[in-house]
Design the sequence.
């Protein structure tokens, strides 16, 4: 991993000629991702992010913390005990430089030893699951992170809207696999990461998988095709 996302976060924080990130997927063309988007404060975040941060309580694990904006808000404004977790070394360094007291660079599947009252996976948190055939692995791991009365707050988007429809409303979906399984590529300053697997889930598919792995599932809010879900231990 070249850690291009981390490089962009690092460059922006240190004002070292940052450029916009570029992203693309197997079903979408090149798109600009302004790096300052990763440094938004609470007022600039979308409704789903704000709802999740308002619902966070107790000891918090922020998975896929990125530049640390969610963790920083919970630590500084809500006075919560927060651990920021990300696989990007440079992003975690920036988290620490921004003042996050606990920040760890590690894959969530390798992280262990602590339990939490709230686990956050935001900005399409289901993406980290990679593919449907790995979702059980990730959900079982998430189950081990929770205290008895803990909660997981995770969001995703049903991307069915991105596919063509016929006159009768039927959707043309390419053969093979689940339509939310995508290849995701990041570009920055002329470099490209290798494609990674990224999973967008419709609510019912997430609900079925989570219930099969010992969770009770509650949809907290819907915002067009995106939604926020709370998972708790059965």
Sequence:
């Amino acid at each position: 991993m070249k850690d291009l996302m981390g490089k962009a976060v690092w460059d922006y924080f240190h004002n070292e000629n940052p450029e916009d990130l570029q992203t693309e997927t197997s079903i979408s063309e090149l798109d600009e991702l302004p790096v300052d988007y990763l440094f938004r404060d609470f007022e600039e975040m979308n409704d789903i992010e704000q709802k999740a941060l308002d619902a966070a309580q107790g000891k918090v694990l922020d998975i896929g913390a990125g530049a640390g904006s969610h963790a920083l808000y919970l630590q500084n404004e809500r006075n919560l005990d927060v651990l920021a977790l990300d696989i990007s070394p440079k992003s975690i360094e920036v988290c620490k430089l921004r003042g996050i007291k606990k920040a760890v660079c590690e894959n969530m599947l390798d992280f262990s030893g602590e339990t939490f009252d709230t686990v956050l996976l935001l900005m399409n948190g289901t993406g980290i699951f990679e593919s449907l055939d790995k979702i059980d692995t990730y959900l079982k791991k998430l189950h081990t992170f929770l205290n008895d009365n803990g909660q997981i707050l995770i969001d995703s988007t049903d991307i069915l809207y991105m596919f063509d429809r016929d006159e009768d409303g039927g959707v043309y979906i390419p053969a093979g696999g689940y339509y939310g399984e995508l290849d995701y590529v990041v570009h920055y300053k002329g470099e490209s990461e290798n494609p990674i697997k990224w999973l967008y889930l419709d609510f019912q598919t997430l609900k079925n998988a989570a219930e099969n792995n010992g969770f009770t599932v509650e949809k907290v809010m819907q915002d067009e095709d995106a939604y926020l879900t709370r998972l708790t231990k059965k």
